[in-house]
Inverse folding.
């Protein structure tokens, strides 16, 4: 099996992905973006490490796809339109050509799915398992959409379904007593959601027009909502029974009700959490603005769900059970090298 | 000794470095650059791995400084003005507060030296020794300055001195028979050059006005000049005796003449290699344009040296000894996971 050194890896396998003229076909040290987006640029970076963010025996193309997707998810949550990314790839030894082609295949799938192209990067020697770091660029919306714009009274929304990736991870770790209650199809779908985030790029116009604050959910709803509340100087109440669950997650929770905690605190959702403000200026009231947001999301084909509200206060967000009692959560969410 | 989890590391140690308003004090998922540089943006990324690009027992602040400096060096070679960077930091476990403060201290020194500020990043768990990846942004020059613009007849220049970092690395690896010929001051200076690149940001106006091609030297003059020649579709001859050497490197080569190969093929110089074209349009001839480049560099206080010329042909660059005979090099330069 042929192996590729650094120069061959770049020239033969990665350069064909660099379709944007600013990348000079990866033959240079830096990309030169001469055309700037009219409202500026949103830029984000996220790294994935084998054995931390994916399994060492996962297909390298799946890991490559996920690395681009999680960065695109950050851009989507800022109402930015992704167009390019840089990639740093660290490998412990020269890869086989098969490995390199599988890896690049995942990048190519992500490029086609999200409309981005590779514009630069670096390849280095890893000490330990392989890892990759992506920096992604997007066209900015006219008004920055940040975590800190939420106000008391705003309606809280999430996209898609929550907890699938966390349950999929439990299954892969052999920690899923609930798996017996699921069909093969359902278990496969959960496992897939761990490796294949679906960044909600279609929500961009609705977010840009209506949201007061937004972020993507990567470390679990409980922790990420806490971050949004702290940044916005508010608290929140969430109706736990309103959290959108996939059929598979619903079956799992039916079999093991305590799993609701894994749904609320598990990471890797890559759905969007958004707060939509009252329309005080036009006098239409909160409902009118949130209905406009819902209509815009529906037009974009992006599933969204009301899960609660922001409120005045500095307490951590409350997750209420159907009787209105707050759930006691033993975990907060995912933090790297937590103490 | 207090240890810092991910949230404390970001909020207490890294956020104070994020002075640019687009960074939202690192409280958000992405930076929002609303003001775009007039000629666009140059963007580059380079990662450093402990045990590969620096020693595991090096001061973390020195590694942090080097990570920013090598990215700034890439921007400088493109005649771009650095202004911001993103940082991904991977640690095997929660750092001590001392470690984190030392690390951030190196970033702060680099920020002060190069006029950049931290605008975003990611912190993840490392499997194996720690590593860091930087993506740096600069104001673009009016005309992209790439590797591929060199033409036959162009004069070749390098900045500063070559080979110091390669000799410093040999000393640190205990492979330096030559060290006995050097003063303590000289050995210290070589070791320092390995960890403290001096990106040639002052050469920017001269490069923007006069150079046809440029790149920074990170993998050794021989390999990097080969890359410039391939991208430009030319060959080159270099007068090995014209290569600028520090006093320490000169003493080392005097003690051990074979070290000239380490000077030519060793990495980590982070000096700039530039080609300056003939001034055909104005009829002034090559010498006039190269003299203007030299004058501009002198005005900027940046030491530059003529080392050779580009020429028609596709052969690898030749390094000529004082008698005009080509040196035979056994190594090419540094390549990650070379075969």
């Amino acid at each position: 099996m042929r192996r590729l050194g650094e120069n061959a890896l770049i020239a033969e396998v990665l350069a064909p992905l660099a379709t944007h003229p600013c990348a000079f076909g990866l033959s240079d040290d830096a990309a030169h973006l001469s055309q700037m987006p009219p409202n500026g640029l949103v830029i984000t970076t996220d790294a994935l490490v084998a054995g931390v963010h994916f399994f060492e025996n996962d297909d390298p193309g799946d890991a490559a796809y996920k690395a681009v997707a999680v960065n695109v998810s950050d851009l989507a949550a800022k109402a930015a339109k992704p167009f390019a990314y840089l990639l740093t790839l660290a490998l412990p030894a020269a890869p086989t050509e098969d490995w390199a082609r599988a890896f690049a295949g995942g990048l190519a799938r992500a490029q086609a799915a999200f409309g981005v192209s590779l514009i630069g990067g670096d390849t280095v020697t890893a000490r330990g398992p392989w890892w990759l770091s992506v920096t992604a660029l997007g066209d900015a919306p006219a008004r920055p959409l940040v975590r800190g714009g939420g106000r008391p009274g705003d309606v809280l929304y999430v996209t898609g379904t929550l907890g699938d990736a966390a349950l999929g991870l439990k299954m892969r770790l052999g920690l899923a007593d609930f798996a017996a209650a699921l069909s093969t199809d359902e278990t496969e779908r959960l496992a897939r959601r761990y490796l294949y985030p679906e960044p909600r790029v279609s929500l961009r116009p609705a977010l840009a027009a209506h949201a007061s604050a937004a972020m993507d959910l990567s470390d679990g709803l409980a922790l990420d909502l806490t971050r949004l509340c702290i940044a916005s100087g508010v608290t929140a109440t969430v109706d736990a029974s309103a959290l959108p669950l996939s059929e598979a997650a619903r079956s799992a929770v039916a079999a093991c009700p305590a799993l609701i905690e894994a749904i609320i605190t598990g990471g890797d959702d890559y759905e969007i959490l958004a707060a939509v403000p009252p329309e005080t200026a036009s006098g239409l009231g909160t409902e009118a603005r949130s209905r406009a947001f819902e209509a815009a999301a529906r037009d974009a084909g992006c599933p969204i769900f009301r899960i609660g509200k922001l409120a005045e206060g500095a307490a951590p967000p409350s997750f209420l059970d159907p009787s209105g009692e707050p759930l006691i959560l033993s975990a907060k969410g995912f933090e790297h090298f937590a103490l």
Remarks:
- The CA atoms of residues 22 and 34 of chain B lie 8 Å apart.
